[in-house]
Amino acid sequence: MTPQQPSSGGSSTRFDPWYDHYAHRTAGLSASEVRALFAVASRPEVVSLAGGMPYVSALPTELVTGALERVMLNDGPQALQYGSGQGTPELREQILEVMALEGIRGSVDDVVVTTGSQQALDLVTKLFIDPGDVILAEAPSYVGAIGVFRSYQAEIAHVLMDDDGIIPEVLRETITRLKAEGKTIKFLYTIPTFHNPAGVTLSWERRLEVLEICKAHEILVLEDNPYGLLYFDRQAPNALRSIDDEGVIYLGTFSKTLAPGFRVGWALAPHAIREKLILANESAILSPSSFSQFAISEYLRSTDWKGQIDTFRGVYRGRRDAMLSALKEHLPDLSWTVPNGGFYVWVTLPESLDSKEMLPRAVKELVAYTPGTAFYADGGGRHKMRLSFCYPSEDMIRVGIRRLTSVINGELEL
Ligand code: PMP
Asked: Which residue ranges does the record assign to the Aminotransferase class I/classII large domain (predicted)?
């Protein structure tokens, strides 16, 4: 059992007097090792290619204020009240329309509204994981999911990816090996489309194969899809959930197609699971924010929300292009993924470089990124880094890549 760390408040050395009282599961709750550096990296003079913040300034303010005003005028008392633990019927209907854009057909009864998809990740993990159960996840995987899985004392088994996403043969081998070791595998957590952090997308053939493998081994699939509608050239293959509605729990969110401040996401569960999910939601939060749900319903009803998603796509496409061309110009010897949507480029550094060790030097040179190790539960990713192109302008991205180039070249000369 890893002991609790002393308070991580800056340079404080005061030990927590409740040190011996915490539940065992909190051993998995550790502040990101690079959190302190990111506080420095949020200074305006630093070009941050680190965070995954959507560029909400591309959303015209009046679209939101208009919706908020109408909610208060027309539905004020209800919007300010507690609501159903499953979410409002109107928003759940509208969520079906959003998911239909990625080929998903579901029932309004099976949609559960949550406080962002992050909370849905927590609920699903709470429902299925006993300490020591195994969750399969791509290598690398979303840092926020790894944190949730750890907080429930899951064992995380990574499965290798390439440019077409998770590799089915490796998935098969991993399952066989873990079963031979007597492990209980509960689910596969996957981000098939515009992966965070890898930027890649699972091909259609592999989608079918991955589902077949999981079905054969009775492994549930947890499909996390925050970026699917943010494609740049052509739409990605349809969601896993569009192929299999009994073995896939699908997670969606309004965080990237509208704004994360509403904190509204959802799970589309297989019918058999939904009741437990609703109970878990009620026990965690009573009901998702009525106000946010009313506001989003009004926004979807009264604005050209698909046109707004096009606007976001245009902004992110320009930023992706700026990042890729700057990488090509300045760092031609490195390799990186080419995302067709989403927010991230995944860069492979020369083996001799350690991206975590290099970060303080980068921040000193006024550029930040996320070191690869953040996205692995097993210490992998030392010579990888995630670069986000979602937030800084195209010009700032070019400045950032130039600074990063001087840091990398400086390290290689040492
Ligand atoms: N899953 C993935 C893959 C993400 O990138 C994020 C946000 N960075 C989330 C889930 C959580 O998003 P939210 O809670 O805002 O819906």
From this structure: 66-404
The closest-lying atom of ligand 1 relative to the alpha carbon of residue 260 is 15
Distance CA 240, CA 202 (A): 10
Task: Choose the residue to mutate in 119, 224, 254 for probing ligand 1, maximizing ligand atoms within 8 Å of C-beta.
Answer: 224
Any ligand 1 atom below 6 A from CB of 260: yes
Instruction: ipTM value, please give it.
Output: 0.99
Q: What is the DSSP letter of 6?
A: P
DSSP sequence for 118-175:
HHHHHHHHHHHPPTT-EEEEEES--HHHHHHHHHTT-EEEEEEEETTEE-HHHHHHHH
Q: Give the helix/strand (H/E) hosting 48.
A: strand 47-48
For residue range 8-47, what is the model confidence (pLDDT) as tens digits?
A: 433 334 588 888 899 988 887 777 666 777 777 788 999 9
Cα–Cα distances (Å) from 295 to 65, 108, 112, 290, 395, in that order, read 9, 19, 17, 8, 34
Q: Relative to the CA of 264, which ligand 1 atom is closest? A: 16
Is ligand 1 within 6 A of the CB of residue 196? yes
Enter the pTM of the model: 0.95
* Terminal Cα distance for the chain, rounded: 39
Q: pLDDT (tens digit, 9 = 90+) per residue, 37-47?
A: 777 778 899 99
